[in-house]
Amino acid sequence: MQRIRIDPIWQDLAVIERLVRESRTVAVVGLSASPTRPSHGVASYLRSAGLTVYPVNPGLESWEGLPAYASLAEVPGEIDIVDVFRQPAFAVEVAAAAVEVGAGALWMQLGVISPEAAEVAAAGGLDVVMDRCLGVEHREVVGWS
Questions:
Q1: Which residue of 7, 81, 103, 136 is 20 to 30 Å from 126, comparing CA positions?
Q2: Using CA atoms, how far apart are residues 144 and 97, in angstroms rounded to an integer?
């Protein structure tokens, strides 16, 4: 198995800290209804920490009492962070959609490694974080438990 090298620019601790401290809305792309999936746990944590979570998954009608959206374009509010829980092959598509809706950042979760998606998002003016967990970073920076 070939390991993809991640450019340190996509794991900038200053960017991570700023995003975690300042962001209030997160669109979780690929959010699962299954409580055993990481996307479910991270979204639940973020919601309990006071952030507005927009579930994005065309296979869901709702999640935890919130309406789910089939795409980022359907999300009714401003999006600070697009948190990606999709396979890397889909990350470029998600990055382009994040740019299109004017999101503030593209955050690719652990294992979601796509330098191409990072470049698309950065070229569109978004902050980018790759191969880090938003839930873990939020807990580390903010101290929410």
A1: 136
A2: 30
